[in-house]
Every structure is written in C-alpha cells, then in structure tokens.
C-alpha cells in the first residue's frame, strides 16, 4: 500500500491489447467509466459494500437477526467469490468495531505476516537492485501468511449471533452454483493479463480460459473455492491455520515451489502461529468530532488524521467552490505522506511516534512550514521527543487489490472493515481456489540504504506497512459516521477529501462520496478526470506553482455511513460497483 511512482512513467505492462491504456503502478484499477448512479440507502440498519451480491447477502443476514459482524463475515466471503481481484480468504485486513452495548471501540489487525524463512533481500536482484514491480508481485516471496480468516473468526466468536456456518452459506452457493461475472470483474481480468499471468497456469485455467475472461452471459464457477469454504463452514476458522484446510494450503504452496525452485517455502508453524492483534485505536479530536482509525502498521490512518489536522489550521476551507481549499488539501496530503512513509513500521520493532506526529505544536510548525514554502517538496519532520532521524528514506509503495465495507445493525453495532490481496488479483497464484495475496511487496524492497536501515523493512514475523484506514467518527461519545476506501497509497487522500466534505462542507453522503478526488504524488498532482459529480472549481485553478498536473481517472470505492436525523444513511462509491441497502 505505499510506494508511488512517476505517473508520467506509468507502465505499459505485459501483452497490452491494441488501444488499451497502460497499467499505472499507482492506479492499476481506475474508476468505472460507466458513470453509474450513486447508490444510497436509509434505515435502522445499513450495509454498504463494493458489490451488489455482497450487499444483498449481508442485508439478508441482518434481516435474519444477525449482527454487524455476522453480516461482515458473509459479505467478505461473498466478495472472495465475486470480487476476487480485491480481497479474499488468502488476504488480510483491518477492522474497527463499535460494540453498542459495551460502548467500546475495538481494533483488530488481520494484516499478513512474513513467513519465518523470509529474508530482508528476498525481492532484490543478484545485483542488489530491487526487482521490477511486475516481477516482484508474481514471486512466491511476495505472499504473506493470510490474516483475513483469523480476523473474521475472532470477531465472530465475540460478536456473532448466527452460527458461523450459516454466515458462509451464500458464498458457498455462489462458488458452487456460479454467478455471471460483472463488468468490473471482467475488466480486472484484462488488467491482470497486462500485469502478467504467465507464471500461474492455475489462474489462467480458472479465470482466463482460452486466454479470455469468462463470458458475461454464462455462469462462472469456482468449485475449489466452494470446497475451501465448506471446510471453513464445517470446521471453523482455525481449520485455515491448523486443520484440513491448512493442509491443503501447505500442499498448494509446496506445489507452487516447483515452479520457482529457489523459494524457501512455508512451514506448518507459519500458519499455526498466526494471531490477530488487538490494538488501541488511533484517535484525534477535530472539527468538534473525535476521529478514530487504525494505528500502525497502518500508515493510512495517521496520514488521514495528520492531513485533516494541517487543514484545520486554515480557517478558510468551508467552501468547496474555492480553489484555495483544494490546493490546501493537496499540500496537506503531501506533507502528511512525507511523515507516514518515513516513520511507520510494524510496532513489534518498537514504538512509533504517532502521538508526537499529531502533537498540536508539531502540527502548527508543519503547517507554518507548508504555508511558507508552498512549492517545496516536503521531507519528514522531526517530531517532539525524537532527537534524530533513525531510518533511511524509503521509496513509496502501492496497494491496489483492496475493498472496504461498512455495516451498522439495528442494535447500533458498527463494522468498518478494509481488506486486500494487494495488486489486482494479488500474486495471481491460486491455492485451493483462493487468490493468494502479494502483500509482502508492501515492505521496502531494500532493507537498508547507504548503510542505514529502512523502517518498513522485511523480516520474519513482521507485518508490512499498509495504507488501509477504516474509520469511525464520534460526536459526544456516539458514533455518527463510518468510512473507508480502497485506493492503494491514495487511500488517505481519498478519505481526507471525503471527511472534509462530510464534516466541514456539510455535504450529504451521496455528494461526499461522489465529489472529485485529487492526489498529491511524487510526480505532481493527479486530478480526477470524469468524476461522478462535476468539479466545483475549474481544474486549471488547482495548479500548485510550477508542479506538473495530470488529469486521470482515480479509482476509489468509498463506503460511507452517517447518522442524520435519527437514522443511518449509507452511500456507495459509484467508481466501482458499490451498493448500499437498508432495513427501514
């Protein structure tokens, strides 16, 4: 989720069809060019996911008396079948859960882990140079030990109301009996071809029979995934890590090792030792609200809070039609990125100065520097309590195969959940019908630069830094908004803009998700082309001095819930196939 590369050097990867646009390493999956309407729903319980089948299945669970977590398990399992390019059982994720009865916010970290045989230089060439991105995503060393199933199981054990097996039935049925592939799924398969699939005969056989995506008018089935889901339903989540399904996974990884003989492989202990980590939420008071998000190893949550804190120093951001507002947003994004991409790493390796990076005096100093040098390319700051810069400055990353969903049940329990397999269809390797992630490319490929260690370096048992940033916003102690999005390294950019629209501009949910995005990157400013709602300013007024600006489609998949006038209102980002549904 993190290393941005020059947009003007966007890669044309693989065997690109004549007339096909290049695949960018920042934005391999751009927005849906179909211009779908913004899906909204209002009620006592609301579901917002990136796919209509997942939303319908989750709503049925709520109608049957299930909790927000029951609906979450169902939605993620269905997404593993119908949206495998973004998330699945062999990926990882983060969950923020509000327990209405206990009045407690919980944070579950289900991020992937580097196996014990990992080495810091696993994604380096013999020369010591980093592997090309496309090649790295297909390497078996890119696959992290998955955390999705462990996260879902732990959440369900504490908050589920329906039997675990019941929550998986819709996904089993879809995988076994089939479904008609959506336009987005078929488009994503074209992107996967251009990134590269020659390394995975199993992927080609299932998803690209005859070299073409499955026909839109025919049922697509994944019987191997159906069997994996059935094992999970019968034996429970632990079977993924130490049971019948774990044996299938390890056998599959051993078989893949024959395609890449140098790979050191996984051990049974890599799976059996996986554990979800319960963390303290990262929160900050802003604009009369308390914003809570995922702490490290997410860097995205910190970036959102820091972006908004920098913007809060400017008292002239109340009008979306003022170009100054958008220019300030772009600058704040860049300054927040500079800090989060330097300081954040797996907390197992020591404390991260998140509190100091959000310290009011530090924010004021960063804001003053930002205003004094608007054309300056920001560098990471030295927050209070840090006497020196301990790390090398790494390059930036990307994280694209991601999904977000937001659910509130009639009891007021909230689930804000972001999950990912990383690149579109992850590594494009399959085991037991599951798309395997390539999340370990989120570590810095170079463990050290000029003799200094990189904070986010690859080592056994570590979790790579992520941009995923599910959020829940409180007012007077009560949750009033839940939001999150896919979008790779641009996730904090997307969410800061959405929250600015919701909390400061007072936009309703549909407009908050539909308004345009911009993203400040190392190559300049990326401005959304053909957004769902028109730009409220002329985009040529967004130029930041002499920095280059590029107009392009920007993919997001925001799921937003907001408490308005005594009911929950949901809105789904039209840039994907998002659908909001509600119980009145």
Termini separation comes to 37 Å
Poorly predicted segments? 1-22
Number of helices in the DSSP assignment: 17
Residue fraction in strands: 15-25%
Sheet of most strands? 7 strands, antiparallel
Shape: globular
Overall SS class: alpha+beta
Number of strands: 21
Radius of gyration, rounded?
A: 22 Å
The percentage helix is: 25-40%
**Strand line-up in the sheet with most strands:** 1-20-19-15-14-7-6
Round the mean pLDDT to the nearest integer and report it: 92
Explain how this protein is built.
The chain has 584 residues and is of the alpha+beta class. Among the domains are: 1-39 and 51-93 and 121-276 and 398-403 and 428-464 and 578-584, no CATH class; 298-372, Serum Albumin, Chain A, Domain 1 (Orthogonal Bundle). It has 17 helices and 21 strands. The protein has helices at 52-63, 68-82, 133-138, 148-159, 164-177, 183-195, 201-207, 223-235, 239-242, 244-257, 268-272, 300-312, 323-343, 354-357, 360-372, 491-504, 509-514, and strands at 39-43, 45-49, 92-99, 104-110, 277-279, 282-286, 289-293, 401-408, 414-422, 430-431, 434-435, 448-449, 452-453, 471-475, 478-484, 518-521, 524-528, 549-552, 559-564, 567-572, 579-583. Strands 1-20-19-15-14-7-6 form a seven-stranded antiparallel beta sheet. A seven-stranded antiparallel beta sheet has the order 5-4-3-9-8-2-21, with helices on one face. Strands 16-17-18 form a three-stranded mixed beta sheet. Helix 1 (52-63) packs antiparallel against helix 2 (68-82), helix 2 runs parallel beside helix 5 (164-177) and helix 12 (300-312) packs across helix 16 (491-504). The chain is globular. The relative contact order is 0.21. Mean pLDDT is 92; it is low at 1-22.
């Amino acid at each position: 989720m993190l290393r941005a590369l020059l947009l003007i050097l966007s890669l044309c990867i693989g065997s690109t069809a004549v007339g096909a646009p290049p695949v960018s390493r920042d934005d391999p999956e751009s927005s849906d060019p179909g211009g779908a309407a913004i899906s909204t729903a209002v009620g006592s319980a609301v579901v917002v996911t990136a796919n209509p089948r997942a939303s319908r299945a989750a709503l049925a669970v709520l109608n049957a008396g299930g909790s927000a977590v029951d609906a979450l398990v169902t939605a993620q399992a269905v997404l593993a079948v119908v949206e495998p390019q973004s998330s699945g059982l062999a990926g990882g994720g983060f969950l923020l859960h509000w327990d209405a009865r206990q009045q407690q916010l919980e944070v579950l970290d289900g991020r992937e882990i580097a196996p014990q045989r990992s080495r810091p230089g696993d994604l380096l060439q013999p020369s010591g140079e980093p592997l090309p991105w496309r090649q790295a995503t297909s390497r078996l060393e890119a696959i992290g030990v998955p955390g999705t199933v462990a996260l879902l199981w732990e959440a369900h054990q504490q908050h589920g109301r329906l039997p675990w097996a019941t929550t998986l039935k819709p996904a089993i049925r879809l995988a076994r009996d089939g479904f008609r592939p959506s336009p987005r799924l078929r488009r994503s398969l074209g992107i996967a071809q251009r990134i590269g699939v020659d390394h995975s005969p199993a992927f080609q056989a299932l998803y690209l029979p005859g070299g073409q995506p499955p026909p839109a008018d025919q049922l697509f089935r994944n019987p191997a995934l159906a069997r994996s889901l059935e094992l999970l339903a019968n034996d429970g989540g632990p079977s993924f890590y130490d049971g019948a399904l774990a044996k299938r996974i390890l056998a599959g990884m051993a078989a893949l090792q024959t395609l890449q003989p140098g790979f050191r492989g996984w051990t049974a202990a890599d799976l059996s030792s996986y554990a979800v980590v319960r963390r303290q939420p990262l929160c900050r008071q802003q604009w009369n609200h308390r914003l809570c998000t995922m702490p490290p190893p997410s860097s995205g949550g910190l970036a959102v809070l820091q972006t908004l804190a920098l913007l809060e120093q400017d008292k002239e951001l109340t009008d979306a039609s003022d170009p100054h507002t958008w220019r300030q947003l772009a600058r704040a994004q860049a300054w927040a990125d500079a800090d989060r991409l330097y300081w954040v790493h797996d907390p197992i390796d020591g404390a991260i100065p998140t509190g100091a990076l959000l310290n009011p005096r530090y924010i004021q100093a960063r804001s003053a520097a930002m205003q004094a040098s608007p054309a300056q390319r920001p560098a990471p700051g030295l927050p209070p309590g840090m006497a020196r810069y301990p790390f090398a400055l790494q390059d930036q990353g990307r994280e694209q195969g991601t999904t977000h969903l937001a659910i509130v049940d009639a009891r007021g329990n909230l689930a804000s959940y972001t999950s990912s397999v990383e690149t579109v269809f992850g590594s494009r390797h399959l085991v037991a019908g599951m798309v395997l992630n390539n999340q370990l490319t989120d570590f810095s490929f170079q463990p050290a630069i000029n003799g200094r260690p990189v904070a986010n370096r690859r080592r056994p048992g570590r979790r790579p830094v992520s941009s995923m940033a599910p959020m829940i916003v409180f007012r007077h102690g009560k949750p009033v908004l839940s939001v999150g999005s896919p979008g790779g390294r641009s996730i904090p950019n997307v969410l800061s803009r959405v929250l600015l629209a919701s909390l400061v501009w007072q936009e309703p949910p549909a407009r908050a998700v539909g308004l345009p995005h911009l993203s400040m990157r190392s190559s300049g400013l990326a401005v959304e082309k053909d957004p769902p709602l028109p730009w409220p300013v002329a985009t040529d007024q967004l130029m930041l001095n002499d920095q280059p600006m590029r107009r392009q489609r920007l993919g997001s998949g925001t799921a937003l819930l907001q408490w308005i006038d005594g009911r929950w209102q949901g809105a789904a980002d039209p840039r994907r196939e998002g659908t909001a549904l509600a119980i009145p």
